Amino acid sequence: MTRFLKTFRGRGNQLLERMGCLVQTGLDYNVVSSFIKQLPMVPNQTKDALEKKIDCMTNFLGYSVNSLEEFPAYLCYDFERVKLRFRMYIRLREKGAAKPKVSMGTILACSCAICKTLCRCPP
Length: 123
Prior knowledge:
Elements: H1 2-7, H2 12-24, H3 29-38, H4 47-60, H5 67-70, H6 79-94, H7 104-109, H8 114-118
InterPro entries: MTERF, MTERF_sf
Keywords: Transcription, Transcription regulation, Transcription termination, Transit peptide
Family: Belongs to the mTERF family.
C-alpha cells in the first residue's frame, strides 16, 4: 500500500473514479484491486485514457475485457504503441504469416522475438 501511495498522483476521489471506470467495464472489484497492487501506475492515467484503451481492446482488437486479467500491463502501454503493434500483427495475420489468435502480452511485450512467436517463417 505504501508503494502505491508513493506512485499515485491525485486525490482520493480520482482514484475511486478510475477504479469505478474499470469495474464498470465488467471486471470484478477484487481483480481491479489486484491490478493496482501489481501496477500502481494504472490509476495515474485519466479516466478517459483508460476508457479509450479498453474500448480499443474490445471493439478494434477483438479481445474481451477479461483479457486484462491475463495481461493487466496493457493499461500501462502508450496508446500509439498499442495501435502500431496490433496493426503490424493484423497485417501479418491477413497475409497468413502470423498465428490466428495470439495473446496481447505476446504482441505488446515482445519486441525482438516477435517474428519467432508470431510468424510462420522458415528459420
